[in-house]
Amino acid sequence: MNLVLLGPPGAGKGTQAVRLAEKYSIPQVSTGDILRKAVKEKTFLGVKAKSYMNSGKLVPDELVVEIIKERLVENDCENGFILDGFPRTMVQAEKLDNMLHTEGKRLNKVINIKVEDDLLIKRLTGRRICKDCGANYHIIFDPPTNEGMCNKCNGELYQRDDDEEDTIISRLDVYKKQTEPLIRYYEKQDMLATIQGNGAMDKIFSDMCQAIEGSM
Ligand code: AMP
């Protein structure tokens, strides 16, 4: 089962991808997570990507396409994958189609999570992440039991550099200009399901599962 999660930053792609990965036993492949790890480890890729990420811009297509090319041939992707944060441009979408075609594969479903801008801004400015295990919290909607500390592993919580308000505005702008056209692209291929992403997490998850299972 090869899935893509589409939607603006803050739509909840990452949170839902973790749950889908568990339910369907296929890996979540997040280009954002791969890039953040590279930045932290100061690899060649990380050094190149850092300034784009911190200013809310997209990392150049050729870099992310290469990341995905290498990741999707790993063994754990044999039975499928959940792409979270890729593709984000038309070029990336076309490269993905070609890549899968060469392997005799195709996408099964693209889930578009829809959320209004004001809620996205609230979600992103309040988001906190565990430095050690990557768990997500929100200072108002989903606070940890002890302030600044992860419930799961006691790790320290931090705010992503790109979750500052100015950067969020530019990320939303980039989404509208460069990523939103993909909705039409996948709609035309009859592959798109749009889910309202502003309700309860469990309801969003069950809507997603229904859309996925309805297409199998
Ligand atoms: P995310 O965690 O998905 O919000 O991604 C964080 C940042 O990583 C984005 O704002 C981009 O700078 C970069 N990034 C992640 N995925 C992509 C992609 N598919 N294409 C270009 N840049 C990306």
How are the strands ordered across the major sheet? 2-3-1-4-8
Helix content: 40-55%
Query: Architecture in CATH?
Result: 3-Layer(aba) Sandwich
Average of pLDDT: 95
How many structural domains can be distinguished in the coordinates?
A: 1
- Beta-strand percent range: 5-15%
Computed Rg? 17 Å
Which ligands accompany this protein?
adenosine monophosphate
State the CATH topology: Rossmann fold
> Number of helical runs?
9
Shape: globular
List how many beta strands DSSP finds.
Answer: 8
Q: What summary fits the major beta sheet? A: 5 strands, parallel
Q: For the terminal residues, how far apart are their CA atoms?
A: 9 Å
Quick overview of this protein structure:
The protein is built from nine helices and eight strands. With 216 residues, the protein is of the alpha/beta class. A hairpin with a 5-residue loop joins strand 5 and strand 6.
